[in-house]
């Protein structure tokens, strides 16, 4: 086995656009209230893009921050992966555009779509790349402009989502004790729940024709209660499974970093796992649900604020459209 073949998170970073949309702002758009949104979701505000800002623009800022944190330059990268359901365009890939904006070319660049689990799906790809080519320097970004697919007439969904990007830089590592080592990733999917959370309008199942009017199917549609129950169940079970197969217990976990969709979901998962308070990372109040960006934003914030000291174990878990779900263990 090559001595560099442990994948290690060397740097983390995130970016959210400047503009903030508060619950009070939403009260002017749909029939809702700060009280309903706060009690049902925990969200107080979310960041939304300025006109003309696309996913690659958010990804660029997050990537720069992660590279700076790693002490590396764009030129050092060999691979760029962007997980997103809201890329700049169907083609070219967001990762290709990001590569160009970083001022480099000739690297491997690809997008992934695993919705809110996209970052964890990306981490497994990164581990595979490092195992195959241990000298690789991989940038993984979760970047979303969910407000580009938000139906501002649907109060059941428009209060939930925000825009942002989170990134990590991963390299091979010779020393198993190095900080940021990805111990394991565990992923699942099930297409049976596809129609509970979807965006279909303008895609190949529902193609555009000239003169078509944009309708609800062009935006996120979700059966919230069904998704809620599945999200709690799936994140709990995949978290238990990944700990068990690594010979670890919940007592070993310093910080649970769950997908930030709804504080009630986060609390329920934490409670079922026996984790609460300081051991569960929450920022959904400030960013809302940013899909593939949510876990890496939380990870970057948690590291920057000292919540992941040397030797601590982070348990990452997510659930999203597809359905997809998964977990990862990272030792800092
Ligand atoms: O990121 C991928 C994973 N996504 C998720 O995990 C999201 C999972 N789902 C959820 O977080 C929750 O189901 C929601 C936050 C979406 C909804 O919360 P809920 O407690 O499941 O509410 P509900 O859908 O059962 O709606 C309860 C009531 C309804 O009124 P009636 O029928 O009881 O009269 C809704 O019409 O709340 C009403 N409602 C609202 N009221 C004020 C729905 N949205 C709003 C709103 N403001 N924004």
UniProtKB/TrEMBL annotation:
What range(s) does the Beta-ketoacyl-[acyl-carrier-protein] synthase III C-terminal domain occupy? Answer: 243-331
Biological process GO terms, please? Answer: fatty acid biosynthetic process; secondary metabolite biosynthetic process
Record keywords: Acyltransferase, Cytoplasm, Fatty acid biosynthesis, Fatty acid metabolism, Lipid biosynthesis, Lipid metabolism, Multifunctional enzyme, Transferase
Q: Where is this region: ACP-binding?
A: 260-264
> What are the coiled-coil residue ranges?
none
Q: Name one GO cellular component term.
A: cytoplasm
One Pfam family it belongs to: ACP_syn_III_C
Cross-referenced InterPro entries: ACP_syn_III_C, ACP_syn_III_N, FabH, Thiolase-like
Please list the reactions this protein catalyses.
malonyl-[ACP] + acetyl-CoA + H(+) = 3-oxobutanoyl-[ACP] + CO2 + CoA
Localization per Swiss-Prot or TrEMBL: Cytoplasm
Q: GO molecular function: any one? A: 3-oxoacyl-[acyl-carrier-protein] synthase activity
| Pathway given in the UniProt record | Lipid metabolism; fatty acid biosynthesis
Q: Chief location of this protein? A: cytoplasm
Query: So what EC number does this one have?
Result: 2.3.1.180
Cite the Beta-ketoacyl-[acyl-carrier-protein] synthase III N-terminal domain residue spans from the record: 110-191
Catalytic residues as annotated in Swiss-Prot or TrEMBL: 116, 259, 289
SUBUNIT field:
Homodimer.
Record-linked HAMAP family = FabH (MF_01815)
Q: Which family does it belong to?
A: Belongs to the thiolase-like superfamily. FabH family.
Described purpose of this protein according to its UniProt entry: Catalyzes the condensation reaction of fatty acid synthesis by the addition to an acyl acceptor of two carbons from malonyl-ACP. Catalyzes the first condensation reaction which initiates fatty acid synthesis and may therefore play a role in governing the total rate of fatty acid production. Possesses both acetoacetyl-ACP synthase and acetyl transacylase activities. Its substrate specificity determines the biosynthesis of branched-chain and/or straight-chain of fatty acids.
| Domains as described in the record | The last Arg residue of the ACP-binding site is essential for the weak association between ACP/AcpP and FabH.
Q: What is this protein called?
A: Beta-ketoacyl-[acyl-carrier-protein] synthase III
Q: Which organism is it from?
A: Alkalidesulfovibrio alkalitolerans DSM 16529
